[in-house]
């Protein structure tokens, strides 16, 4: 009888080992609604979190643990290898040569909004050359405005006053402390609605392109012997879910 109990215990352990998944930690932006942020309890939520959770559930050998942190800190920790990956950076290979990427997760449409008093003079202006002389906001650490924009900042043609969040930048815009602000259209509109701002005072003056969000991975290999296998399985699983219609197409 005792041998049967022991055998049953061994079988349970073997069965558990066969289905156990390698857990992988990914860190997201803690304040980028509706894409990546935290709810009042600190739980990661948003469009990227929802997508990553669906992929995690479908992966045969890995499970994804999601956490959120301030964006600039998360970037530094990934660069130093303290965490394996973060979401959702845009692909900036020249700026971050140490980072490599998953397949794209979502598409974001980047626009410029300005105060109503400023917007009428700059509607349809060429980006960014046509906005010389203005004061811009930007989320700290975001490369959303593009290389030429930051070159104009260095040249003194544009003034830059960054803040951590979309909410803080919109509040500065409404208060007249900045003239314009570039970010994803959906991120701006969701915060305008949440903050109950007068949408007529936040005027879109230019669409400056589309960006794709990715998982960005560290180049530090120590501590992550499974990294390549995870990236391969993640990419294949997401592609399969898209092909089946289980997650929306990339558009």
TrEMBL record:
Keywords: Signal. InterPro entries: Solute-binding_3/MltF_N. Pfam families: SBP_bac_3. Residues 24-248 form the Solute-binding protein family 3/N-terminal domain. SMART domains: PBPb. Residues 1-20 form the signal peptide. Belongs to the bacterial solute-binding protein 3 family. This is Solute-binding protein family 3/N-terminal domain-containing protein.
């Amino acid at each position: 009888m005792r041998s049967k109990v022991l055998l049953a215990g061994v079988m349970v352990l073997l069965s558990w080992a066969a289905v156990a998944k390698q857990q992988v930690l990914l860190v997201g932006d803690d304040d980028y609604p509706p894409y990546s942020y935290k709810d009042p309890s600190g739980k990661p939520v948003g469009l990227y979190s929802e997508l990553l959770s669906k992929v995690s559930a479908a992966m045969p050998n890995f499970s994804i643990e999601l956490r959120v942190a301030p964006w600039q800190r998360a970037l530094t920790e990934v660069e130093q290898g303290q965490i394996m990956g973060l979401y959702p950076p845009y692909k900036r290979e020249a700026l971050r040569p140490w980072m490599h990427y998953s397949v794209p997760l979502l598409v974001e449409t980047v626009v410029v909004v300005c105060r109503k008093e400023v917007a009428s003079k700059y509607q349809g202006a060429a980006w960014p050359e046509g906005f010389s002389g203005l004061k811009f906001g930007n989320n700290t650490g975001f490369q959303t405005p593009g290389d030429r924009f930051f070159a104009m900042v260095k040249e003194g043609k544009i003034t830059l006053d960054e803040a951590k969040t979309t909410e803080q930048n919109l509040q500065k815009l409404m208060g007249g402390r900045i003239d314009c602000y570039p970010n994803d259209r959906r991120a701006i509109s969701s915060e305008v609605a949440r903050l109950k701002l007068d949408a007529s005072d936040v005027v879109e003056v230019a669409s400056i392109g589309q960006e794709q969000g990715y998982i960005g991975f560290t180049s530090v290999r120590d501590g992550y012997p499974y990294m390549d296998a995870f990236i391969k399985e993640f990419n294949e699983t997401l592609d399969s879910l898209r092909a089946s219609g289980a997650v929306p197409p990339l558009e």
